[in-house]
Amino acid sequence: MSAKILIVTGDAAESLEVLYPYQRLREEGYEVHIAAPARKQLRFVVHDFEEGFDTYTEKPGYTWPADLAFSEVDPGDYAALVVPGGRAPEYLRNDPELRKILKAFFDTDKPVAQICHGPLLTAAVGALSGRRVTAYPALELDMQSAGATFQDAETVVDGTLVSARAWPDHSGWMREFLTVLRAKAPVT
User: Fold this and answer.
1) For 79, which DSSP code?
2) Average pLDDT over every residue of 114-126
3) Cα 163 from Cα 134, distance rounded (Å)
4) Which of 76, 129, 93, 77 has the alpha carbon at shortest distance from 8?
5) For residues 21 and 113, is the Cβ–Cβ distance under 8 A?
6) Strand pairing of 112-115 and 80-83?
7) Helices (H) and strands (E) in the chain, counts
8) pTM for the whole thing?
9) Which of 22, 79, 110, 158 could form a cystine bridge with 3, CB 3.0-4.6 A?
10) DSSP conformational letter for 2
11) Is 103 helix (H, G, I), strand (E, B) or coil?
12) Angle at alpha carbon of residue 30, lines to 11 and 166, rounded to 5°
């Protein structure tokens, strides 16, 4: 049986930041499950960078079913975790079930990939203190407040934690995450 990877997300997650790792990891041979606050059809968004805007824009994106509710997740069943961005992390960080899941992955030093606003979740469980990370650049102060050293780079690898700024960095992010996964949780 292949190793299982968990993606944690919710409504208003960035479509590409959920679906690119979902498809890329499946392509690699991993079994991938998406968990959300409830089993339901999730509504993702598309963030884009348009000339004349001081920040990204947001449009409706794809819909996708959640395989599991956070309350149904046993972190011990999974070899690694993916934490997408978008607006979802802003409210998901308040979910006590999700915080238990995140803490379990960090407590056991399992691989974690985070991107964009996803590090708001890992910050919420105190998992960034003393680590090097990147995130959406507007989160630099949030990352520093969480005790992390922020680097404005395509991808930052700190042990088993792999972070990226946003969807334009996908190829580097997944390349580095797969390097960590192949060492810690190879496909069998």
Assistant:
1) S
2) 98
3) 6
4) 93
5) yes
6) parallel
7) 6, 11
8) 0.96
9) 79
10) P
11) helix
12) 45
